[in-house]
Amino acid sequence: MDQWIEQAAAEIARRAPRELEALVAVSSPSGDVGGANECAAVTAALAPDEATIERVPCSSPEHAEDQVIRLKGTGARKVLLVGHNDTVVSHAEHKPLARVGEQLVGSGAVDMKGGNVLALGALRAFAKRPELYDELVLLLVCDEEWRTADFGHVQRFAGFDACLCFEAGELAGEDEGVVVRRKAAGTIHVIAHGRTAHSGSAPDRGRNALLALATAAQAVASRHAPNGPSHLTAVPTVMRSGDAFNVVPGSGELFCDVRADDLDAIEDILTHIPAEHEGVRLEAELIRRWPGMRAEEATVGLLEAASGLLGRRIVGAARGGASDASHFASTIPLTVDGLGPRGGKAHNPEEFVLEASLQQRAEVALALIAAALAPQR
């Protein structure tokens, strides 16, 4: 292993548990302005002194501003690091960080505050080597977990040479794994327009929105084909209808999470949702469109160079979950995700980071950044 990478990663890992504790201590469910601003204050405190820090508009309305932490150097290449501080865990379920055996357990620990801590550590390490880069930038957003608006940062970083995202890491057998392929993702929203009625004295005068939404949910679920040509997963996730136990529900809404190799397969599901069911009108739309990511071929040389610096293999893999890396992949061909620490139980108050992986994954991140900054063959 490159000696500088070994020493810098050890320093990152030494500080990481306490830094992760500080970041996880902040409850920051997606959309919460106070939590997002408090996280931004913590990450600003952990940034290198040499960095400039800017708050920029978030892609989602009525959210706190996102954060850009920038190092300016004297080299030639520009590399973007990406993370997010929002979680799916509510304030009521939030758990601060606690050490449980080999695990660092706490809300948002692996998705993805652990990755943010490694990215900040990498910035501090590279701040001492400004000759290696023109710009090294960390973008931290606060709406990744529940964004339905268009992503607003692609053009801001157009022309960058590489994008490295710090979602959770993994092993690929005995090798270090990173993510070079992701599915496209979408959220289907269905609104039901029925008619209320007394469920005891006049049930047949009503038009039951709940039953219509159930039919729509079954129509979506019928397209589920993870082993099919598009590897499509179609999962109804949230249904709301009715306000009283003795009233035919006259309205409601349904959300479905859909993933596939391409957006066309997701769009096709809309054609299978009926426009009407037993007098209830159904309006279906795709309110969230995330592109897929296919960087396998473009990143072969980058992974080989980083493996040489690391002294062990880094292998590209596919992952089903969505990530902001996918938005950048269409304009920055050298896009790699999954640079964060290893762990588990993402989207759960009990999610965790494996403490032993912090140094290993810091080594992976430093190797990939160094390789991305080097002149390309």
From TrEMBL:
Q: What is this protein called?
A: Glutamate carboxypeptidase
Q: Which GO terms describe its molecular function?
A: carboxypeptidase activity; metal ion binding
What is the organism of origin for this protein? Solirubrobacter pauli
Which keywords belong to this entry?
Carboxypeptidase, Hydrolase, Metal-binding, Protease
- What single Pfam family name could you report for this chain, choosing any that match? M20_dimer
Give every Peptidase M20 dimerisation domain span.
182-273
Could you name the domain of life of the organism this protein comes from?
Answer: Bacteria
Q: Which InterPro entries match?
A: Bact_exopeptidase_dim_dom, Peptidase_M20, Peptidase_M20_dimer, Peptidase_M20A
> For this UniProt entry, which segments traverse the membrane?
none
